[in-house]
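FORM 7B: Structural annotation worksheet

SECTION A. Query
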Amino acid sequence: MKLSGWATWSLRVKFSVIIMAVTMAVLVMATILFTIHDRRVLYQQTYDQMSAATRLTAKTIRASLAFGDRATTVSHLRALNDLPSFQYAVVVDSTSEIFAYHGEQHSLEPALLTDISRPFILKERDHLCVLEPVILDRELLGAVIVKSGLGELHATLSQFLLTAISFFLLSALVAWGLSSWASAMMTLPVLDLTETVQSVNRSKNYSLRAVLRHSDEIGELSEGINNMLGVIEESSRTMEEHLRFLEKLFDTIPLPVFYKDMDLKYIGCNRVYAWQMYGVSPEMVVGRSIQDFRKTLTEDVVDRHDARDREIIKSLRNQSYESRLQCADGMARNFLVNKAVFYGSDGQPAGILGIMQDVTYIKRMEKEVMDVSVREQQRIARDLHDNLGQLLTAVAYKCKIIELGGDKDAKTCREEMESVIKLVNRASQEVRALARGLNPVAVDGAGLSEALNELANSIGTYFHRECIYRGEDRVVGLENVTADQLYRIAHEAVTNAVKHSEAETIGIHLKDVDGTVQLEIWDDGKGLPGDVHTASGMGMHIMEHRARLIHAEFSADRRPQGGTSITCRVQRRGNREPKYE
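SECTION B. Predicted structure
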């Protein structure tokens, strides 16, 4: 049944109930009025009946009263037993003395004996008395008094009235029940729907559903709301999953990230920022400003960053600057700070987003590279002065001797020229060695294997250590920059093994595996102290830096049999994305 049908049916029921209630009210009112009227009628009928019987009795007993015949008089009085609720009948003489009596023993009402010469009716609440004079030939002989109770009449009227009232109350109760049932049939689905909506609004639990009781418009509305709640629940679940993912992603970012509102109070930050900057959890940062961390940061840092934030809020322009900060762990770090204004859904500025990049390592590496360049320049200068300079000086000296000794024979001159040629050849070798140090690998990168082999031989020659090289005869597909950095990584690793590891045997292994060039340098020395990833010294950091420059995978580990193993893997030309094993 549709809602319109339910409404029509309910209205009909309500109209019927109203008509029934009005009818019952009219009926009860009519019953009450009838009872009042009937009471009067019954009183009148009882009075007429008693009056007629009393008059008849008065006529009947005239003779017996005149002759003083009590027995006959009493026998005539017995005929009054048929009167309703008969109590007694009394005959009094002209002096108001009782002459004959029949029925229950009652005392006579004094009001009845005041004047017995005229008919008299005494109406009381529970009885009715009728007096009729007995007259013979206009002579008053006495009077007949008859008394009947009205209890039975009252009981009849009361029972009738009680029945009418009971019927009215029962009808009203039935009407109320029918009305409540009809109202419940109409309002219960609406109440269920309202309760569901209120529960969802209070608890924000979108898994609740409205009860489908009927297939009317309310039922269709409930079903529509249930479908809407299902969509909201699914959207809320998806949003919560995305929020958890973003929070996890936010915390996974290795860079310190934060964002503030327009009052420069933190709205959120990741764990890296909270722990690195303030040494607390992100929850303890939210709602506070940088001014609240003066005990953690120095006052000049707080004031400087606060001033920059206010400048961004005022100008609505992004900023990027370097800053050196004393972090919560006590270490001073250099950061590249990038800040930008973010906007709300209304298009108005909502706050500041900041990302900080730790450039301490980069600064350190830049300084180390500069120091290495200076040391390399100094080494080249020493080599030029000590080796090539001395040879050139010797060549010049020999040539001067030949110039001044012009009277020498040809054999002597030939011998001196041969010595000069030897000095020039040695100088040429020194130049080639110096050039090999500056550019150890051929221009096309194919000479990496040859350069590593010469590196192994030079280690054996100059440092008297066994250095073994195994590798491909020719590795192609490497850019010159990549090959050069691989050679320098190997040179640094071998130098560390000789100077610091006290190794007796060093191995250099170059191989090509599925398009990946792998360079491995190992030794049998004392190995790296402690954690290889936190080892002190710049040699390891320089090798890692060189590996990152060519997008190579770098690792350094301690060998189980002792010593150190350094591995660097890089893709050949044409496949720049590194493939990790």
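SECTION C. Observations
The longest strand covers residues 332-343. Confidence is low (pLDDT under 50) at residues 532-536, 575-581.

SECTION D. Sign-off
Analyst initials: ____
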